[in-house]
């Protein structure tokens, strides 16, 4: 069946309505007090965004909006299907993840990660795939034997004989992350005293990943505007964003491109925000 397209004017913006009922706004300048999809009727949910300039050359964003309650319209359900999740992982050369991993991602993405739309979900999953070797490694592999005992040290919060190398699906590091995550998730210092719980407990491996995304990544400048490099900068900017062309930063972005394709998002995404 052919998809018929109608173009009409909403609040001064030309938008496209298809049978899928998702559409792009016009360019909304950064000077506007209200932007995005929330102010349209019927209620809309932002699926993704992309940078633009309006007719006067003012920088802004275009937003891909979907009616709330539709398959792409947000709410409380999953952001994507299991088959899309599977494709997102396997297209990057890793084994197919189980249904349990799909369920866990969607269980915590909104509640702990505060992830707002499909584009942000793609960014978070891409980073987790890179950090955990395709959702397989819950410990930083180079540290498994040595504990990386001379790294990730901070006398302000380290506990004696305890090592804070990467664990979980986003590889939580440093005592100043384990401590606050433990307080927020468990109400005590369990993870500060025993950080390996993050690797041993599948639930905590996901919960700490989304805790980190919400508290350390998603509110960094550029992340909500779809700048994937800004999320890399928040996660490992000191090593990967100090100069252009970092191999690991580029690898992360390639993974993101494959995730976007699996999720049906347009284009390769925006790599800016890292170096």
Automatic annotation (TrEMBL):
<dbReference type="Pfam" id="PF00182">
    <property type="entry name" value="Glyco_hydro_19"/>
</dbReference>
<dbReference type="InterPro" id="IPR000726">
    <property type="entry name" value="Glyco_hydro_19_cat"/>
</dbReference>
<dbReference type="InterPro" id="IPR023346">
    <property type="entry name" value="Lysozyme-like_dom_sf"/>
</dbReference>
<keyword id="KW-0611">Plant defense</keyword>
<keyword id="KW-1015">Disulfide bond</keyword>
<protein>
    <recommendedName>
        <fullName>Glycoside hydrolase family 19 catalytic domain-containing protein</fullName>
    </recommendedName>
</protein>
<keyword id="KW-0732">Signal</keyword>
<feature type="domain" description="Glycoside hydrolase family 19 catalytic">
    <location>
        <begin position="79"/>
        <end position="219"/>
    </location>
</feature>
<feature type="signal peptide">
    <location>
        <begin position="1"/>
        <end position="20"/>
    </location>
</feature>
